[in-house]
Design brief:
11-stranded mixed β-sheet, Rossmann fold, 6-stranded mixed β-sheet, binds threonylcarbamoyladenylate, alpha/beta, 2 domains, globular, 17 strands, binds magnesium ion, 11 helices, DHBP synthase
């Protein structure tokens, strides 16, 4: 399939592009588009055959349901059997924005979207291009992240092109996504709402509106629990190189670990804050074997750059990636959730003054 690539300019010409993109979606084709979180792969959410094309393009397992995107609060009603007070309060506070609500579904939502569950996930994105596209389509737009299943989500149109060229009808280039991590998913069907996936709307922001919010225990990586968002059970966001995440006090050992790995002859990728990056690159030992990816200073910058940097490591292919863990406050909870998954839960901590790995054993170069 020939994939059209259309750059959005923030001028009148965008309207023509939107009409052409909406025509593809109305004809049952798939179009990639920007949102404030990550790029999405959109199709008519009420058309099972169109939705099946999304699963085919991504190589996504059928048991993983999709989010329906709308561009007007009132468009949630026909998709559900009714909204409780918690759902209404969350919409009021955070829509449009990076929050997805799981609600009991109505009969018009196809099983292909909900993966046979009695619920549907709905989101009203704040990105203006996403809103224009959904409005032009005149239907709810089913859209997962626009990556091949298992890869980090794309946060710019070039990364979408890399994964989806030849597989979808068109890609809309709306520049970089501001937030950079997928939306927060909250199950509103329980008496106390549950965070199924942390994201841009933080735990702290949710408790401020709702009082009490729970976090799905499966998010802590405990294999005794099955995640309630089917998508959270898959190995995700994973770069091709082996990755280790240094958490808590272990993070201060990062420069030493990097040096040991270099001395052991490894090509080392390092994902870290600006201050550590500066220290590492000043080191005279730094050779062509050291690939430093700095995310900047704040947790927001880390969120915005994480997937791009992980995908970049798939281009440079170091032998090993060492990543600096961060605090779990605010968007840090979502960042750490994605980093732990990217590392396949190879989490390094300090125990009795020694580095140790939560699962499995430490590689040779980390043992002093
Ligand atoms: O920010 C986002 O949410 C992006 C942009 C494109 O909007 N979309 C996105 O979609 O991340 P996706 O398909 O990659 O992730 C959707 C997540 C999956 O973990 C899925 O299992 C969960 O939401 N989900 C969808 N419907 C659900 C439902 N009815 N019950 C529980 N979890 C659900
Ligand atoms: Mg995804």
């Amino acid at each position: 399939m020939q994939t059209c690539y259309w750059k959005l300019q923030n001028n009148e010409q965008d309207q023509e592009v939107m009409v052409k993109a909406a025509a593809f979606i109305q004809a049952g084709e798939v179009v990639a588009f920007p949102t404030e979180t990550v790029y999405g792969l959109g199709a008519n959410g009420l058309n099972s055959e169109a939705v099946a094309k999304i699963f085919a393009a991504k190589g996504r397992p059928n048991d993983n349901p999709l989010i329906l995107h709308i561009a007007d609060v009132k468009d949630v009603e026909p998709l559900t059997t009714g909204l409780n007070e918690n759902a209404k309060a969350l919409m009021q506070a955070f829509w449009p924005g990076p929050l997805t609500l799981v609600i009991n579904k109505s009969e018009i939502v196809p099983d292909a979207v909900s993966a046979g569950l009695p619920t549907v996930a709905v989101r009203f994105p704040s990105n203006k291009f996403a809103q224009q596209l959904i409005k032009a389509c005149g239907c709810p737009v089913a859209a997962p992240s626009a990556n091949i299943s298992g890869r980090p989500s794309p946060t710019n149109a070039q990364d979408v092109w890399e994964d989806m060229q030849g597989k979808v009808a068109a890609i809309l280039d709306g520049g970089n996504c501001g937030i950079g991590l997928e939306s927060t998913v909250v199950d509103t069907t329980e008496p106390v709402p549950v965070i199924l996936r942390p994201g841009g709307i933080t735990y702290e922001m949710l408790t401020e509106v709702l009082g009490a919010v729970e976090i799905d225990p499966a998010l802590q990586g405990d294999s005794n629990y099955k995640p309630k968002a089917p998508g959270m059970k898959y190995r995700h966001y994973a770069p091709k190189s082996a990755m280790y995440l240094l958490e808590g006090e272990a993070a201060s050992c990062l420069p030493q670990c990097v040096e040991n790995a270099l001395n052991a002859g490894k090509r080392v990728g390092v994902l870290c804050s600006k201050s550590i990056a500066q220290a590492l690159t000043q080191n005279d030992n730094a050779s062509g074997n050291l690939l430093v990816a700095s995310w900047g200073e704040s947790l927001e910058e880390l969120a915005a750059n994480l997937f791009y940097l992980l995908r970049d490591f798939d281009r440079t292919m170091p032998d090993v990636i060492l990543a600096e863990g961060v605090s779990e406050s605010g968007i840090g909870l979502a960042v750490m959730n994605r980093m732990r998954k990217a590392a396949g839960y190879q989490i390094v901590t300090v125990n009795n003054g020694e580095l140790s790995l939560k699962v499995g054993s430490l590689p040779e170069f980390m043992i002093k």
